[in-house]
Specification:
Elements: H1 3-20, E1 26-28, H2 33-41, E2 54-55, H3 61-73, E3 77-84, E4 90-91, E5 98-105, E6 107-113, E7 125-130, E8 134-137, E9 142-146, E10 152-159
Antiparallel strand pairs: 1-8, 2-3, 3-10, 4-9, 5-8, 5-10, 6-7, 6-9
Helix pairs in contact: 1-3
InterPro entries: RmlC-like_jellyroll, RmlC_Cupin_sf
């Protein structure tokens, strides 16, 4: 992976955030994801499902991504990892901060609900999220991942933007 790949990837993340923060959820397909994601996925250790999100280890590429994105955006960004086993669901809930969520490998169904009570008639956004695609989930929204066909390694970037 070249520095240019990394910079283009960061640029697309920053553009998504600049466009959609304070507006609503969004899906982004960052340029050069195919070269950046393998470097992020390689640092994840373990095949056993996590019971909670765990901070990306010091020195891990996911930590570098969080630091570089935070530098570009002008606020702190934290990186967390988790393994979603095949056939399980993972409710993310309302985190209290904007987040970028993306599979490093595999894929899962992703449902984002608005800030109000859940609408049983389907008022949310639902999509199939695959490696190379990211979803931006605003702070007051909730998100649920389900229907992973194979174990799905996830990266969560928590954005601590000031209101």
């Amino acid at each position: 992976m070249s520095d240019t790949d990394w910079e283009l990837f960061l640029r697309d993340l920053a553009l998504c955030l600049a466009t959609y923060q304070d507006r609503g959820p969004a899906v982004v397909w960052p340029e050069r994801a195919h070269t950046v994601l393998p470097s992020l996925d390689g640092a994840y250790g373990g095949e056993v499902a996590d019971t909670e999100w765990r901070p990306a280890p010091l020195g891990a590429p996911a930590r570098r991504l969080a630091a570089d994105l935070g530098h570009v955006m002008g606020y702190p960004v934290e990186a967390y990892e988790r393994l979603l086993p095949a056939g399980t669901a993972l409710p993310l809930g309302r985190v209290g901060a904007d987040v970028l969520l993306f599979p490093l490998s595999g894929g899962a169904r992703c449902r984002v609900e608005g800030p109000g009570p859940a609408d049983p008639r389907g008022g949310g956004v639902e999509l199939r999220l695959r490696a190379g695609e990211m979803v931006f989930v605003p702070a007051r929204h909730s998100c649920t991942l389900s229907e992973a066909w194979a174990p799905c390694r996830l990266l969560l970037l928590v954005l601590h933007a000031t209101p």
